[in-house]
Amino acid sequence: MNFKNVMVAMGITIPMATFVQAQDNLVQYVKPIIGTARMGHTFPGATVPFGSVQLSPETDTLPHDVNGKYVKEVYEYCAGYQYDDKTIVGFAHTHFNGVGHSDLGDFLVMPTVGTLKLNPGEKTKPRSGFRSSFSHATEVSEADYYKVHLDDYNVDAELTSTSRVGVHRYTFPQSSDAHIILDMMYNIYDYQGKDVWTYMRVLDDSTIVGYRQTNGWARNRTVYFAMKFSKPFKNYGYKNFSKNEPYGGFWRRFNINHNFPEMSGHDLRAYFDFDTKNKESIVVKMAISPVSYDGALENMKAEAPGWDFDAIKKDGQAAWNKELHKIEIKAANDSEKVNFYTAMYHSFINPTEYMDRDGQYKGNDQAIHKANDFTNYTTFSLWDTYRAQHPFLDLIQTHRANDMMKSMLAHYDQSSIKMLPVWSHYANDNWCMTGYHAVTVLSDAVVKGINTFDAEEALAACITTSNNPYYDNIPAYKKYGYIPDENSGTSVSTTLEYAFDDWSIAQMAKKLGKDSIYQTYMKRAMNYKNVYDPSIGFMRPKSAAGVFRAKFDPLETDGEGFIEGNSWNFSFYVPQDPMALIQMMGGDKKFVAHLDSLFTMELPDKYFEHTEDISKDGLIGNYVHGNEPSHHVPYLYDYTSQPWKGQARIRMILKSQYHNGSAGLGGNDDTGQMSAWYIFSSLGFYPIAPGSDVYAIGSPAIDNAVLHLENGKIFEIKVKNQSDQNVYVKSVKLNGKLLSKYFIHHGDITNGGVLEFEMSDKPKK
Fold it and tell me: CB of 506 within 8 A of CB of 517?
């Protein structure tokens, strides 16, 4: 009998935290700095698993556009932070993880000393504003903890968080001119007029509440806050930088800019003054709410009632350790563990909780709702995450995954056009990207039998969504069996995505015994054939008259009918029907040669240098791993006579696209999709077609893994002769039985058992 069982038998209750602390400290392998350089677009700051707050440094204030002209460099700042920058302008409370467009950056806080400055200045002009220089030598980035020294003010800044509260600790030098600035103007992807309205109210000498409404990627987004200081401020005030408020009304009777308890306007920056002793620390707590500042105050009271920064950090890191222990691995070295557990960390940031502690949240209809039997989530980047991120959560975070899908169904109920989410955040859909992939996420859960939501209700929502007359050429798709070239700049890729989504609806219908619906959607799932041109062997834009576009380059990534990719990559996008695709492309031998060419040919810069989402970092030949549409492609070798080629490709991708450094991701992490691909592939299997319970076998890159499933079962992966040279699978056994094909099923994992690989440096031909 183990220690825990002995104590239970004696009637002694021991807090769960005791056992978490007794576990190996997996937090040591999490390096949030990975992906913060170049195009990874991750943030290095503090957050707890799936937390509402993501408290992180901002390194510049580039706007999205100036005088209506797009500022190209702003794309580097989707997460607010770029590793190569030399200055920090403050610490904001909301961020996306690894996206290719952006929003958020709410409630930026910055400590300063000396002359008060209320403009951030420019990074090319040191000391031109309230920004400060910093060095990576003083920077610490851990799970739920960030620290940096602000050189210009001799201030140590530390950050940690709970789910709904960002906690700052600023250690000042001796000064009679210490300030903490609250910048309500700062936005990621900012532009003139993005702030619709801002309001702040001073409740006492250490408490401020308020809200900000913005019109950005999310059109109607309001976030409320409550802010408390551990020390009373001696003075406070603000400046309104708005250029569109000519009328002040009779507020001119007051001196509203200094020590006045109400502040309102479009573009405000407030300040709070302190006297500080040398090495004196001031703790700042900022709680957020989607409903009200009273809700924010209650969130703070429930989650961070005291002022013990270190205790909050300890609890946050214990929460991360608990989640990371859902998969325990053995690897050849710590570098591999860093990649693996940082990938798990990134996969457990989004989606994010979106409700107050009492369950209230603002819905897609802008009304207040209450989640009575589930946790409501937001941040659904579904074009990216339906592929591997959501299947990973289904497997290892089953309860949360169901709550996320219940959130999608609530979004549908609140939608004015009865549509499941496409890319939703903060009670809005920003409609980014293509397809209606929420249907695939819901189908995947029903087919795997893990759903706790009403499957019949979900199927009805999927059917309505797939027939929505408002959305992205669905009427034309239904009329022609494809989207005509003249209707859309992404006519081919959107057709392919719709066909896959329709196939997933068919699988859900089949699971529920709805044969008529199954037949209808299986027919729609075959629409991919309508945009395949057998004369050239590629998917190709086609007119409403049924004529393929005459001038066409399958290498070009822009303007040829595909979104964020080219025909070479998208022509393999038939994960629902690989065997038919192989035959359509000329049979096994020709298909393998075509796959080989994708990885070995060179894609000249001219074909992607004008696009933001495809870069050299994420390219392997013409295979684009830094973007999502090709993530299943290496696993297509499993359907051919040469699966060993896929095994070698997968290991090569793992080594070339994922590293421990700041530039350690070959492309946007896309709210966890890139990281989920890494996790599945490192374990040795991958969900090639969500909506199916089948996983394709790859080439495991760990020595051993133990998956602790929520049903209490354990699934173990053992790998014999694992090394960087032994990338080929010599044999694979499931519970002692030799597999004859390179596929396993979801139930094989969730029933518990052992998957055993024997590896070799020679392919098994």
Answer: yes
Tokens of residue 83, six digits: 């590793």
Q: How is 462-475 classified by DSSP, letter by letter? A: HHHHHT-TTSTTHH
Instruction: Using alpha carbons, list the distances in angstroms from residue 222 to 266, 293, 373, 409, 606.
Output: 13, 11, 24, 22, 42
pLDDT digits (tens, 9 = 90+) for 593-638: 999 999 999 999 899 888 888 888 899 999 999 999 999 999 999 9
**3-state secondary structure labels for all residues of 97-135:** CCCCCCCCCCCEEEEEECCCCCCCCCCCCCCCCCCEECC
8: confidence class by pLDDT, cuts 50, 70, 90: very low
By three-state DSSP, how is residue 217 classified?
coil
In 674-713, the DSSP E strands lie at 685-686, 694-697, 704-708
Q: How confident is the model at residue 1 (pLDDT cuts 50, 70, 90)?
A: very low
Q: Which helix (H) or strand (E) holds 55?
A: none
Provide the pairing of β-strand 175-183 with 108-113: antiparallel
Please report, for residues 72, 635, 691, 696, 732, the alpha-carbon distance to residue 757 in angstroms, rounded to integers and kept in the order given. Answer: 47, 17, 26, 14, 5
List of residues 6+ apart from 437 with CB closer than 8 A:
382, 383, 386, 422, 497, 501
Pair of tokens at residue 156: 């140590």
pTM of the predicted protein model: 0.96
What pLDDT is recorded for position 613?
Answer: 84
* pLDDT (0 to 100) of residue 246: 80
Going by C-alpha positions, the residue among 87, 187, 168 that lies closest to residue 128 is 87
The gap from C-alpha 669 to its chain's centroid, in whole angstroms, comes to: 7
Nearest one of 343, 369, 339 to 354, comparing CA atoms: 369
10 Å CB burial of residue 557 (0-12, 13-18, 19+) is buried
- Residue 263: its H or E element: strand 262-265
How many angstroms separate the CA atoms of 212 and 106, rounded? Answer: 8
Give the Cα separation of 238 and 268 in Å (integer): 7
Across 53-81, average pLDDT:
95
* Assigned token pair, 469: 């007359």
692 DSSP 8-state letter: B
What angle do the packed helices 643-657 and 673-683 form, to 10 degrees? 130
Give φ, ψ of 306 to 5 degrees.
-105, -165
Which residue type is seen at 352? T
Average pLDDT over residues 686-694: 98
Percent of the chain at pLDDT > 70 equals: 97
Q: Determine whether 331 is exposed, middle or buried from the number of CB atoms within 10 Å of its CB (0-12, 13-18, 19+).
A: buried
Q: What are phi and psi of 365, to 5 degrees?
A: -90, 5
Terminal-residue alpha carbon distance, the chain: 48
DSSP 430: -
Q: Are 172 and 282 in contact (CB under 8 A)?
A: yes
HSE-up of 412 (CA within 13 Å, CB side)? 23
Residue type, position 318, single letter? A
Is beta strand 714-720 parallel, antiparallel or unpaired with respect to 753-760?
A: parallel
Q: Among 357, 316, 322, 353, which residue's Cα sits nearest to residue 160?
A: 316
**Helix ranges (DSSP H) in 277-430:** 293-303, 309-324, 334-347, 382-385, 389-396, 398-414
What is the per-residue DSSP string for 460-522? HHHHHHHT-TTSTTHHHHHHHSS--GGG-TTHHHHHHHHHHHHHHHHHHHHHTT-HHHHHHHH
Query: What does the pLDDT read at residue 68?
Result: 87
Residue 142, classified by CB atoms within 10 Å of its CB into exposed (0-12), middle (13-18) or buried (19+), is buried
Q: Measured between alpha carbons, how far is 573 from 583 in angstroms, rounded to an integer?
A: 14
The Cα 416–Cα 433 span in angstroms is: 20
Residue 3 parent element (H or E): helix 3-9
